[in-house]
Amino acid sequence: MSKCIYCGEKAGLFNSRHRECEDKYLTTKINIIELVSSSIEKGIDFKQLQSEVEKLANEGLVNAEEVEDLYISGYDTTVGNFLDDGILTKDEEEKLAEFKKNLNFDQGTLDKNGSFQKIVKAVIIRDISEWKLPAVSFDIVWHLPFNFQKDEKLVWLFQNVEFYELRTRTEYQGGSVGASVRVAKGFYIRTSSFKWHPVQTEEMRYIDTGTFAITDKQIYFVSSLKSFRIEFWKIITMTPYEDGISLQKDGVSAKPQIFKNLDGWFAYNVISNLNTK
User: By the 8 A CB rule, do 78 and 119 touch?
Assistant: First the structure.
């Protein structure tokens, strides 16, 4: 006779759970996530929150080991709600900071699903839009292969970024042209010439993978094959993508440059706002 994985009581032959126990368990997990999220948003006393979460978990057959993940899911939900309008207010930032402080979560745990970095990025964009230089509060170990200019400040860095360039490829195509001339009965000769004409096509060519940095003055890219920097004022067009950004700088022969494997929305907003400073 098998036992229910939730309540530990007999579950019948070939059964590992009671249907009602599983329903209670799943509902409780949802309720805990919603409780954590609403508590952060409303600024409810976190000691009270911990007491209520513990009670719900005990009654809903949720193991203590699972509770931390439910706290993180509640935090993730709140971050999503706060950033739904694209803006993180000071009040919202303080509520999230209080949650982190009172429940003793480190930033690595809160960033399990990328939420903590989203908050840091939102704060950076808010500070820049308010004409302040951002103070990065995210503990990141950055190995900088750049030689920054005097008084230049790093804003953000992306690693393992793929760099592509739009290149023009020229191919020559041709064919023979001419006419057949009769020289005797049943005999013809062909007078012709072979003419070439260029056909140009554009293709996106992968160059290398490296490090992409944004400072308060310009963009840097460095890899084993390619290294350069672009001042903001030289950028004439910029297109963000979900996982990258396309830039084209001023110059007659300049071609679009694409950087893949970075947060395109964040990079676009940072560069756009810094370019107006």
Answer: no
Spatial distance between the Cα atoms of 201 and 39, rounded to a whole number of angstroms: 57
212 part of a folded domain: yes
Q: Tell me, yes or no, whether 160 and 249 share the same domain.
A: yes
Note if the pTM is more than 0.90.
no
Residue 186 has pLDDT above 90, yes or no: no
Kindly state the tokens that stand for 257: 């440059």
Q: How many CB atoms lie within 10 A of CB 177?
A: 10
Instruction: Tell me the average pLDDT of the chain.
Output: 85
3-state secondary structure at position 202: strand
pLDDT digits (tens, 9 = 90+) for 83-113: 998 889 999 999 999 999 999 999 899 999 9
Phi, psi angle pair for 152, to nearest 5°? -85, 140
| 3 state SS of 225 | coil
User: What does the block give as tokens for 143?
Assistant: 């190995």
Residue 227 structural domain: 154-167+201-274
Q: Distance (Å, rounded) from C-alpha 4 to C-alpha 192?
A: 89
| Residue 54 CB-density burial (10 A; 0-12 exposed, 13-18 middle, 19+ buried) | middle
How far are the Cα atoms of 34, 79, 120, 130 from residue 209, in angstroms, in the given order? Answer: 41, 31, 25, 34
Question: Total domain count for the chain?
Answer: 2
